[in-house]
Amino acid sequence: MTVVEPPLAEPPLLAILRGQRSTGDGLHLVSRSYRKGLRLDPHMHREAQLVYAASGTMQVTTPKGRWLVPPDRAVWVPARLVHAIDVLADIEMRTLYFDLQWLKRERRSPSLNSEFVVRVSPLLHQAILALFDERGSRERMALLIKLVMLELHQAEDSATFIPVPSEPRCRRVAEIVLASPATSHEIEQLAQRVGTSARTLSRLFAAETQLSFKSWCQRARIAAAIEKLSTDRKVSVKQLAADLGYASMPAFSHAFRQVTGKTPTEFVEMK
């Protein structure tokens, strides 16, 4: 059987020639707007990239799982890593593409070999936006890039990541839960559905995802909440908490804050 790799996306240089920018020293800056509902099918780039939505929410899917990216997060994607992007709410995307030779000269951290979500501090937010200011001098751009890289190494945050296990039984269970995160899923019943014991499923799930099954399900529920809050401007936070199976608003707010660092109300105001 012939394996067909996902296509390499067009080189950023082609986009730059259509009005985008390059620093001239290994970094390309691409600014685009995407509407809610758009999906960028699985693809990969020759360059590493930092994908940031200055506003709006997106979901980045890699072989490891789903990375939910609300406005105070960005995602680092290594070169030639297959990924897809789903736009959950209208976004203003600011993407920084890094040539591999440039990263090599900069003695990049080994952590940049894998994808991860970045918590975007106010400083990192302003630095990214300032890079897109056409009035910036070459010296200023170099300092901003250095600042971005320093912040990047200190800002990894896996809270909005939903790891998807590769073991077939675990993956099937994950698909069941993700298809209906609001349902109260009992591990005993799920184990029976996929032909194993609850004890084995629990052990495999922890080994595959580094989370207990209960914690993983909670993260899936909060991801569903983030998606709903991002896409439905009229949603009632109280009703959403009930729909997701939380006994009270305080319980929902506590769980939401554990994952995102914000209450649901603060998240709505941010977006």
Task: Write up what this structure looks like.
- The protein is built from eleven helices and eleven strands.
- The strands form two sheets. A six-stranded antiparallel beta sheet has the order 1-2-9-4-7-10. Strands 3-8-5-6-11 form a five-stranded antiparallel beta sheet, with helices on one face.
- A hairpin with a 4-residue loop joins β1 and β2.
- About 3% of the residues have low confidence.
Secondary structural class: alpha+beta
Average pLDDT over all residues: 83
User: Number of helix segments?
Assistant: 11
| Whole-angstrom Rg | 20 Å
Number of domains: 2
Which CATH architecture of the largest domain? Sandwich
Number of strands: 11
Helices and strands, with pairings:
Elements: H1 12-17, E1 21-22, E2 27-34, E3 39-43, E4 48-55, E5 58-62, E6 65-69, E7 73-77, E8 83-87, E9 91-98, H2 100-105, E10 116-119, H3 122-131, H4 138-154, E11 161-163, H5 168-179, H6 187-193, H7 198-209, H8 213-231, H9 237-243, H10 249-260, H11 264-270
Antiparallel strand pairs: 1-2, 2-9, 3-8, 4-7, 4-9, 5-6, 5-8, 6-11, 7-10
